Structures are given as C-alpha cells and as structure tokens.
Amino acid sequence: MANTADISRGMILKLDGSLYTVVEFGENKTARAAAKVWAKLKGVDNNRSIEKTWNSGDNIYPVRVEKRTYQFLYKDDGGYNFMDNETFEQVAIQENLVDAPQFLKDGQEVGILINTETDQPMSVELPDKIVLLVTYTEPGLRGDTATRTLKPATVETGATVGVPLFVNEGEKIRVNTKTGEYVERVKE
Fold this sequence. Notes:
- This protein is mainly beta and 188 residues long.
- The chain has three domains: 2-60, SH3 type barrels, CATH 2.30.30.30; 65-125, CATH 2.40.50.140; 129-186, CATH 2.40.50.140.
- 0% of the residues lie in helices and 53% in strands.
- The chain contains no helices and 16 strands.
- The strands form four sheets. The protein has a five-stranded antiparallel beta sheet with strand order 9-8-7-10-11, with no helix packed on it. Strands 14-13-12-15-16 form a five-stranded antiparallel beta sheet, with no helix packed on it.
C-alpha cells in the first residue's frame, strides 16, 4: 500500500472514482501540528484541476500506467484512430484525450498512456517538439531578424503558429506541442 511519502510528479492517483495526475506537490511542516502533504492534481478522465491535502502518512491509491507507442492513422466520426506499432491493433480515441490534436499528422508516432487495471487508453501524448511544413504564410522580408515580431503561418496539419518574419512558405519549422510556439527553422 502506498502512502503520501511515495507521491511523485507525473504519478496517477485514484481519488473519488476519478483519475488525476500529480502536477506539483510539497509538504507543510509546522511546530504544533502534524505535517501535511499537498498536491496540485490535473484530471486524466475529466477536465478538472484540483488541490488535495493529506496528513503525512495517509494512504494514497496510485494507478499503474503503461506508455505504449502508437502511430496516428486518421480522424473520423469515432475520434482519432491509432495503431499499436507492435500488435497492429487499432484503437479510436476521443479528441478530449489527445494532448494537442491540432498538431497530429498522418503516420506520426505518439505515446498513449494505458490504465493497466482496465486496459483503457487514458491520454495521448505527442512528442515535445515536432517538425511541420509551412503551407501558407505572407512572404518574408530578407534580413529582418532584428525584431521579435511574429506573423501567422498555417502548417501542414491546418494549425496556425506565430513565426518570425523571415520564415517562408514551403520551409519546415520545429514547433513545441505543449505551448504551440515556434522553436526554430529546420534545414535539411
């Protein structure tokens, strides 16, 4: 049985019938009272973010999670369809479980967190940074690199990303999937 001393960032806990991932945690100690352990939790199977406090040593209920590599195939009415790279089994996942669906492109590999108790997919994680082709943007100005001014650019997935003025149509850029921001231009 796990207790509050076992809490770590990224751990998934079962609370009140729902699953939450630990975003941040800490301990409050006072001279008079027993130590308290607090955690900021983000809902895995719901969109809630909560804070929870336990007495030091209280039992917690972690859920064993496995991360498997899947390949994105296509999107249809049933959701986003992925294929397991080892068993070739296909699974359809709802959009609210996908990390950054606007950056998914055909054939892209993603990590899917699977609850090992129920064998159900819990979330889809894209790589932190991905390379995308710019399909449309206004023409850039040569040598205009002194300012931090950004212009909108449409990438191959249909998402819009703010890019520096020197980025042109047909170039590849690296995008941070967590923030949706431009990272760098990619030379081939």
